[in-house]
Amino acid sequence: MDIIFREYPDEEHIFVFDNASTHLKCADGSLSAQQMIKGPSVVFGVDVPLQLNGITQYYADGKVQKVRIKMAPGRHPDGREQPLYDSNSIFKGITKILEERGMFEEVRLPAECKGFKCE
Q1: How much is the pTM?
Q2: How confident is the model at residue 109 (pLDDT cuts 50, 70, 90)?
Q3: Hey, CA dihedral for 80, 101, 88, 109, is it positive or negative?
Q4: Segment (H or E) for 80
Q5: Most C-beta atoms within 10 A of its C-beta, which of 6, 61, 65, 104?
Q6: Based on C-alpha coordinates, what's the Rg of the chain?
Q7: CA nearest 94: which of 26, 12, 39, 21?
């Protein structure tokens, strides 16, 4: 910022930053109901860029190489950790996760309403 004051000392300066996109980034594997499926799955996970020594890996065609990782555990309202995978590393699914929280009415709701218009 020193350069702006040095080069334009007699001007008033207003800086406007749009950092809205930075609010979209979450840690790899972060809990996200939007990415979850309703039922159990052996292959469910979150696809993240493959990195070796902190460097993102690319295919010859320029596409980012991905690796699938488990979604991080959730937390019950009382603060206890809620694993999203069973002891066999099978994803429980939203239905089971909600049941574990005692949300039996919500289990009957659709995972997503058509056109985002729920009745």
Answers
A1: 0.66
A2: confident
A3: negative
A4: none
A5: 65
A6: 22
A7: 39
Q: In the numeric block, which tokens belong to residue 103?
A: 């949300």
What Cα–Cα distance (Å) separates residue 71 from each residue in 31, 32, 37, 51, 56?
A: 6, 8, 12, 17, 20
Per residue in 88-106, pLDDT (tens digit) is 999 999 999 999 999 999 8
Handedness of CA 40, 43, 48, 52 (dihedral sign): positive
> Which residue do the tokens 């993102």 mark?
56
User: Which of 62, 60, 65, 84 lies closest to 73, judged by CA?
Assistant: 84
The position carrying tokens 């991905």 is 66
3-class secondary-structure state, position 85 = strand
